[in-house]
């Protein structure tokens, strides 16, 4: 899986996990909480089955700024 697709899946995992906690705290019906919890558990399983690595999903790498690299930033600072 590409890093951008893993990032999207990671956002969905966080959203479903947060919704599960909110549903539990608000006292929503048990089937609703169970459905949200099962989706939260199914997302990592789907990533592994789809050929991704669980570590990629759960431990994000360093943040990157598109189009800016270390050498580009260094050269801009030295150009006078």
Textual characterization of the structure:
There is one protein chain. This protein has 80 residues and is mostly helical. The chain is 72% helix and 0% strand. The protein is built from 4 helices and no strands. It has helices spanning 3-26, 30-49, 54-58, 70-78.
Sequence-ordered SSE layout with sheet pairings:
Layout: H1 3-26, H2 30-49, H3 54-58, H4 70-78
Main traits of this protein?
single chain, 80 residues, mainly alpha, 4 helices
Question: What does the overall shape look like?
Answer: elongated
Reading the helices and strands in chain order gives: HHHH
Q: What is the count of β-strands?
A: 0
Mean pLDDT: 81
- First-last Cα distance: 42 Å
Determine the fraction of residues in helical runs and give it as a percent range: over 70%
Main sheet attributes: strand count, strand direction, barrel closure: none
Low-confidence stretches: none
**For this entry, what is the oligomeric state of its chains?**
single chain
**Structural class, judged by helices and strands?**
mainly alpha
What does the radius of gyration come to? Answer: 19 Å
**Count of discrete alpha- or pi-helical segments spanning 4 or more residues:** 4
Strand content: under 5%
């Amino acid at each position: 899986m590409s890093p951008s697709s893993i990032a999207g899946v990671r956002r969905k995992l966080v959203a479903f996990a947060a919704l599960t906690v909110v549903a539990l705290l608000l006292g929503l019906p048990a089937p609703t909480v169970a459905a949200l919890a099962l989706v939260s558990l199914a997302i990592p399983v789907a990533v592994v089955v789809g050929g991704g690595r669980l570590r990629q999903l759960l431990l994000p790498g360093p943040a990157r700024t598109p189009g800016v690299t270390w050498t580009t930033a260094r050269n801009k600072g030295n150009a006078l």
